[in-house]
Amino acid sequence: MLLAYDRALRGATALAVIAAGLAAASQADAAAFYLQEQSVKANGRAWSGEAAERGAQQQWWNPAAIGGITGFQAYGGVTALYPRARSSNVNTRVVRPTLALPTGQVVPGSNSAVGGNQTFSNPVNDGYLPNGGFAFPITDKLAAGLTVTSPYSFTTNYDSDSWARYSADKTRLRTYDIQPGLAFSPAPSISLGAAVNVEYVRATLSNYLPDPISAAFPDGHQYLKGDGWDVGYSFGFQFHNEKVDLGASYKSAIKHKLKGTLIVDGLADPITLAAGVNRTIDPARAQFTTPWQVNVGARYHIVPSFTVNAQVTRFGWEKFDQITLAAPVNAALPENYRSRYAYSLGFDWDVTPRWTLRGGVQRDLSPIADGERDPRVPDGNRWTFAGGTSYQLTQHLGLDASVNYTKIASNPIDKATAAYAGTPLQTLILTSGQLYKAHALVFGLGGHMTF
């Protein structure tokens, strides 16, 4: 009888492993799994002026930023992220089903504690995020630019005996965004820009499976490796005068399609062996969508040497509503993210003609609601406090540095999930845990040049 559920088991196990890692960067330096450290200069003022300022370092946020430049500009940098957090089990339960076999035998179900290591520290690994780009004028009204970033990238590692092992084990997600763009300035004070976002995604994701018959049998394990290329777009507007810089931009959502291989192994009880749960699926295809964002920013020059900056960003996280597995499985795992805001305020102070200090603060609201938070993404609302500096070494070459501290709110980890969902082997994971002491330190170092 269980062999009749072979196709459903493929979908249930594949979806579980895909979900185990796509969104686990929650202790990085932006809500959910977005990384906003795409410029060392921007990091230093908590991303408070990026939509409104002119220059190559701002073109990730607004392609209109390169409009009106008078010479070649280039920048590059690396950001080091050190996330820290603790997650502890409170009362997570594993509920196994009662099974009636064709022989008439009944295998009783059970409701048991998850077992294993009840506290886990720092599941998200330290990371190093490079970024860079350049821009140049084609005519006095037209400019072109290119920036290369990694907006959704992280690595997590949970131990094989962690209380969270059925949600996440080893995870590695990398996105590489190549953004070529053009900006047109019909007047010196106005700039219009548009860009294409070409993104390559590579993911390696795994987690453990509770044996559906009894905890006396060893856990199973599932592993997915896949990649894919996808395309989005950006466009924006800027206005400048002697006192005020204004800017607004839109970055589209991008639907990512991964193609790879799924391996499920390690299950040893006779019923799951008969059902053929251990298997290799090649190709395995998954699909998810990263959010759009709208940025609105302003900069006010109180005096020529001192500028205050403000920016509001709306993230369209509702696009990350589910993870789907393509035909022939045709299954979906709900994520139920919500669109949320980030608010930034900062300053730039030219202490001397060569030396600039900057700082800022950002309030970033998590897209994950109570009841939807699991060990993969124990995210919370956060405050980021930033400081930075630039020093002009020569007329053409300068250095940028930044430091950020992000405090992440403690939250319950409370999303119920299921292994082998929709089949007679469906095993519930009633998650009950707690995230606490979550924060991140971020350091950036880079350089810029003009000709």
From TrEMBL:
Main location: membrane
Protein localization: Cell outer membrane
Topological category with respect to the lipid bilayer: Multi-pass membrane protein
Pfam families: Toluene_X
Entry keyword Transmembrane: yes
Coiled-coil parts of chain: none
InterPro entries per record: OMPP1/FadL/TodX
SUPFAM superfamilies the record matches: Porins
Domain of life: Bacteria
Gene3D superfamilies tied to this protein: Outer membrane protein transport protein (OMPP1/FadL/TodX)
UniProt signal peptide: 1-30
Key word Membrane present: yes
Keywords: Cell outer membrane, Membrane, Signal, Transmembrane, Transmembrane beta strand
Family: Belongs to the OmpP1/FadL family.
Protein name in the entry: Outer membrane protein transport protein
